[in-house]
Amino acid sequence: MKLKKTLSSILAATMICTMLTACGSKSDSKTIEHTIKGHNDDITLSVTLSGEKIDKVEVTNHSETESIAGKVIVDLPAKIVKTQSINLDTVAGATVSSQAILDGVKEVLEAEGLDLNKYMNKDSASSKAGENITVDTDVIVIGGGAAGFAAATKVAEAGEKVVVLEKMPFVGGNTVRAGGAINAADPERQNGQTMNKSEVDAIIELTELEPKNDDMKRWQESVKTDMDEYIANGETYLYDSKDLHKLQTYADGDFLGDTKLIEYFCENALESITWLEGKGIEFKPEIQAVVGAVWKRSHALVREDEKGVAIIEPLQEAAVSNGAEVFLNTEAKELIVTDEKVTGVTAVNNETNDTYTFNATKGVIIATGGFAANVEMRTEYNTSGKWSNLDESIPTSNHPGATGDGIIMAQEIGADVVDMDQIQLIPTWSKSGGSTIKGYINNTIYVNQDGDRYINEDGRRDELSIAALKQPGSFFYIVNDHADTINNGYTQEQIDGMVAGGQIWRGETIEELAEAIGADPAKLKASIDEFNNCVDGAPDKFGRKVFDKKIENGPFYASSFIPAVHHTMGGLRVNVNAQVLNAEGNPINGLFAAGEVTGGLHGKNRLGGNAIPDCIVNGMNAGEQILK
Ligand code: ADP
After folding, report:
1. How far is the CA of 144 from the centre of ligand 1 (A)?
2. What do you get for the CA distance between the two ends of the chain, in Å?
3. Cis peptide leading into residue 613 (ω within 30°)
4. pLDDT tens-digit profile of 412-438?
5. Cβ neighbours for 491, distance < 8 A, ≥ 6 positions apart
6. 10 Å Cβ neighbour count for 56?
7. Which ligand 1 atom is at minimum distance from the Cα of 370?
C-alpha cells in the first residue's frame, strides 16, 4: 500500500511549525523542510532544531510501501531525536527508506553548519546486554507471513494460547510484496467466462498423457468425463475442477510433486478462500490468470492495490483478536527438544538483545518461508542444471528475511528435506526497481528490446525466465494498452507518475511507444498485430492459449522486467498432516511446518497463484493438526 500525503497537508504542517515559532514556544527553534530520494520516490522530512539540539524529525510526505517501511517512517525519526544521533543502524527490509531518513537529517545538519561529529553516538540499546525471558504457551509459530498467521489464527480460534515469532520489525513476509492472487477451481465464478478452442485442446492433451501413477490416472479420468460431457453439450463456458487444478499443478511441476500433497492442497484451495472471506477479505467476481498460472483460476483481491497486505492485515487481526501474541524483532534460533518431542524455541530480540525461551505444551509450527534471499544456500543447492548461476548478480523478489532459517533449525534436529535444488525465478521483476504496469497475462504481451515477441506469455515461470535471460540484455518489456491498465486498477495519476519517473514508457501509438523504448516500430507493430489476430482465433506461433482482449486502445505502455529468484520449491519434508518428517519418513513429535519452508508440493515449478493458497491451506492444516 502506498501512502502519499497531499501538498496541503505538508503546507499545513509547515504552517503549524511557523505558528509555534512565532508564538515563541522556543525562541531559537527552526524548522527545515528537506526532500531526499527514498525507495519508491521522494521522502520529505521536516526537521526542527533548537540550536544544536534536534527537537523533532517528521516524515511529512512519502510514497514508501506502508507494509515494509511504515514503521520505519514513524520509529526512526523518533529514535534520531531520542538518541540525538544519525549514526543508527538501518532497518533490515527497509534499508533504503531508513538510510534516506538518516541521510536527509544529516544533510539538514550539514546545511545548518552544525558539527556532524556531535551526532555520531552509537545507539546504546544495540550494545546493551539483554534480559533472559521465559514465555510459556501452547503453540509457537515461527514466522509472521501468510502461513504463520493462518496457523496462528486456527490455534487462537480454538481457544489455545499461541505466540508468533517474527524476526523482522514488521509482519507479512513475502505476501505483503505479492499481488495476493489465489488459485482455486471455483466454477461458480468461472462459469461466467468462456473458453476457446486452444484451451479445450490443452485440457484434452492433459487427459491423454501417459499417467505416472494411480492418482494422476484418477484425475485424468475425472477431467475426461467432464470434458466429454462438455463437448457433447456444445458448452463454451470456462471449465475448471479440483482435479484439473491437481493435474496442472502436477504436470507443470514436471511430475515431481508429491501427489498426496497436491491432492490435499487442491481439494482445500477454494475452502481457504471462503475462510479468508469470513475474515473480511474480499475477492473480485472476475477470475484471471496471473503470470505462470497456466489457467484462469486466479482470484484477485478487491483491495488489489494494497497487494497481500489486504490478506495479512485481516489475518493478523483475526489471530490477535482471538488472543495470539506477536513478538516482533524476535528471531528464532534453535528448537528445544525434550524426550524426543519438540517443546520450545530459543530466540533473541534483535532490538533489545533480550534472549527468550519459549516453551510450548503442544509443539512448534515452522512457517519461516524459503531461502531465496540466502545467496549462500541458493548457490549451494543450485544443482538442477536449470540456472547457470544464482549468485548475488541475480536479484531476488523476496523480503530479506527469506534466509531458510526454519530449514536449518529443523535439519539440526534430524528433519529431512526434499527438492532443495528446485529454485524458481520469476520472469517479471521490475528492472528499474520502481513501480511498473504488469497486468494479467490475458491481455499483455512480452517483447524484447527489438520489439519482437519471443515466447508464449501464458507459459511456465521457468520457461519464461530462461527465455528472458536469452534476450538481448537479459530483459524484456511488457506492453499493455490503456483500457487494460485502467481495468487493472491503475489511476491516471499513478500512470503519469511512473512515466515522469522514467519507470515506464508511453506512446499514443504503438510506433510512438517503440520509439520511446528504442525498439523497431515495424517489429513492435507486427508483434501487436499478430497478438490481436490470435485474440480473433488465429493460432499462436508460440502456442499461447490464454487470450482475452486485444491490445488496441492507446495510449500504450511498456514496462521493463528482468528475472529474479522468487520461490524455493524445496524445503522440509512434510506429510498431509503438516508434520515434519525425519530421514526415516517418520513424523518428528511436536514439529509441524507450512508454507514455503516446506517442499514437495510444487515439484520443479510452482504455478503462479499457487503460493498463497499453499500458505493458507497448509497453515490452517498445521494449526488444526497440532491441536489433535
Ligand atoms: P510464507 O509465504 O511461507 O508464509 P514468508 O517468507 O512470506 O513465508 O514469511 C515468513 C516469515 O518468517 C517472514 O516474515 C520472515 O521474516 C519470518 N522468519 C524467517 N526466519 C525467522 C526466524 N528465524 N525467526 C522468526 N521469524 C522468521
Report:
1. 6
2. 38
3. no
4. 999 999 999 999 998 999 998 888 887
5. none
6. 16
7. 6
